Amino acid sequence: MAEPAGIVGNPDDPPLVRKLRQFVTLTPGETAALAALGQPLRTARARTTLLPQGQTSGTAVLLHDGWAIRHRTLVDGRRQIIDFVVPGDLCDPSSFMLPHRDFAITAVTSVRFALVEPADVLALLRDSTRLGALLWWLEAQEEYILRAHLVAVGRMNALERIAYLIWELWSRLSAVGLAKDNSFILPATQDLLADATGLSHVHVSRTLGQMARDGLIQRQDHHYRLLDLQRLMRLAQVDRTARRPQLPATVREHLSQARR
Amino acid sequence: MAEPAGIVGNPDDPPLVRKLRQFVTLTPGETAALAALGQPLRTARARTTLLPQGQTSGTAVLLHDGWAIRHRTLVDGRRQIIDFVVPGDLCDPSSFMLPHRDFAITAVTSVRFALVEPADVLALLRDSTRLGALLWWLEAQEEYILRAHLVAVGRMNALERIAYLIWELWSRLSAVGLAKDNSFILPATQDLLADATGLSHVHVSRTLGQMARDGLIQRQDHHYRLLDLQRLMRLAQVDRTARRPQLPATVREHLSQARR
DNA sequence: CGGACTGTTGATCAAGGTCAACCTCTGTGG
DNA sequence: CCACAGAGGTTGACCTTGATCAACAGTCCG
Hints:
The structure is a homodimer. Chain A is built from nine helices and eleven strands. The first copy, chain A, starts with 14 loop residues before the first helix and ends with a helix. Chain A is globular, with a radius of gyration of 18 Å. In chain A, helix 5 (about 160-175) crosses helix 8 (about 230-235). The longest helix of chain A is centred in the middle third of the chain and has 27 residues, at about 130-155. In chain A, about 40% of the residues lie in helices and about 20% in strands. The first copy, chain A, is an alpha+beta fold. A four-stranded antiparallel sheet of chain A has the order 1-8-3-6. The first copy, chain A, has a four-stranded antiparallel sheet with strand order 2-7-4-5. At the A-B interface, strand 5, helix 3, helix 4 and helix 9 of A face strand 5, helix 3, helix 4 and helix 9 of B. Chain B binds a DNA duplex through helix 7.
């Protein structure tokens, strides 16, 4: 089967299943349980808020299609984007572990998604420690991205932050087969990039222009192409500690021993 | 028993057990399993690196006593503190879910701690979905703190960031009984506060001075007292979505049904 | 006594924010 | 078919926040 690197399995499977299958063989029961999480499928238009901030309920969102953001808005309107949500992201499995949601989830493009209730995930945990470990692993990846984001926003300048953001998104999309040939579609306004990086939209515009003039990237509309991946990664200080997700051997062993 | 609010149980129990007992009743078996995680107890002097950055192993740290930081250092020496680690923190249970550690753990004071091996935690997960859910909940809290930290660093000014940091630390220490009467000991140099907030140590000094002059806080050496908690929380934009940790009812129910 | 470490304060500087003008593109209603 | 409005983006002018550099003071410790 000729598939994009790392992508295995039936394209009719929901993106979460396809994502996990890259790393582990799922039993039919597990596949069914995961697929059931994604029902019923809902749709929303761009800019719709899927889940508001400050709500007490613990519903999570499983994104099938499109882009969304997790963000927090301060009382005076300043906004920080926590991260971007792309297809296959369960966003976030642990949210119902806390009494209040401290952020909102908003669609960037039109999206297809499912609402996941706490009981569904808790039942999954109770019935399969294997799936529990996998969900935990997804959670660990999310936290990993969050840490890198914090480092970028806290200690990097505008050029480095934007280089990092572009690399991160390219890298995440590559991992699910949504980036071809060093280029990808980033359906976010510069306003959104600003809120993600902690900059102003004006400065994002200037910096992107600079990057294009320097031959780092090329862009038209929302299509970005990475012209010099090495330099981009050096700018973003991406090293061997920041790579495509990978299931550690110890966890792989554990999964093969666990009851299914 | 007259105990500080929220603190229950035998002071001889390891701090992780005491922390969890605030929220759930542990069986003797669970207590023993958790206590076993904390063995053997090691000690390290201030400024010692407990676990370096970039290592491939997945060992985690369970802190019993003292303060530590999780931080990432860039190639040119710029450093971002991810968060502070206080007694009872399992830091972090998910680290062995990723192939490389992207941050270092360094003692701030002299510390007592245990190294936790992946196999130990994975065995815990396999044997008790209850403990698995609790560990996941701790993880969710960690991520919650991380998100708030990102918002502060990305979208708040120096005064607000430092107000937030002080509130966060006070609030976490209160939750484990280490802050009495609106005051606490913060054994961090201003250099560390700078690396946590993404500021320079000079500006941290100025801002802390300002806060003291404004009657927000009082400090001598590393002893901080919050003089106007309301104003501090307003500055830090701490609202009902940012409160003392709490186990949601759905999770509590789940735990009571799960096999022990 | 001298040096290292921490914190404070002043002087100067620069990265990036703010404000504003303007341009293009797209959709809309007369 | 055109006028207009609104969103997104770019660029210039100016300003503010906080960084940098430097001097100095207090404390601890060999």
